[in-house]
What does this fold into?
Amino acid sequence: MEELDFLLGDFSCSWVNLTVDPPTTGSAEWNTERTMRGHFYVMDQTMPGLKCKLIFGRDPLTASFITYYYDNFGNFGTTTSPGWRNGVLVFTGEYYAFGAKTVFLEEFTREGENHYVKKGFHLVDGDRVPVDIIECHRKR
Amino acid sequence: MEELDFLLGDFSCSWVNLTVDPPTTGSAEWNTERTMRGHFYVMDQTMPGLKCKLIFGRDPLTASFITYYYDNFGNFGTTTSPGWRNGVLVFTGEYYAFGAKTVFLEEFTREGENHYVKKGFHLVDGDRVPVDIIECHRKR
It folds into this structure.
């Protein structure tokens, strides 16, 4: 799970929603901690009106990561990731969100010890359609 | 989610492990509560040395239930269920458990307002191979 240790701790985030024109922005808290003797990490994502949980685990048989997502709108989804490749950590999987199924891709990059960025995309016929960009800075 | 309301609350459970000969027995606590504005139910399964979380949700597009499972040994899995059929509630899905992947089937029955039973099976070439039987009684 060490590849995911950059997520651990309490972060203040700013997000840009790219699915509307003009894009909207706001702030959030992404707080991640170890659970289940460190076999899983649980991220709580909080912003006004929206609470999400994202559970990260590891599949030893495929040497890949898995996630489970659920939120207070009833949305949910699972993804998998092969781990870090060329400086990016990419998760892909199917989500149910607000009445529709979508294939979602989340790409993490590290911008420093206390700063990471997540870019979200819908995958449509293999093409990346931008959904959001979220910048997370560790709280001091 | 009302079809799963029988799970809500605090239950004392007795289990029989049928994967060893002779079978072993023990006790557990299965406590389930609503979360995320009632869109999901979270069951905590506790017995000596083993802590498990099982998250239940609903997929409105397929009118089916979903579960996410993870525990303090690093095991995990997801299942789906069409809901109650002929007095049984059956979840099936793939699990990673103790180094191997398995297709798991869990069958719930209600034995009264405060008593339910879960029978677990491995699905091997379509056949049910018994894994365990767990009797849960609501705490007073």
About this structure: The interface with chain A takes residues 36-37, 39-40, 51, 53, 55, 57-61, 66, 68, 70-74, 76, 78, 96, 99-101 of chain B (CB under 8 Å). Chain B has one domain: 2-138.
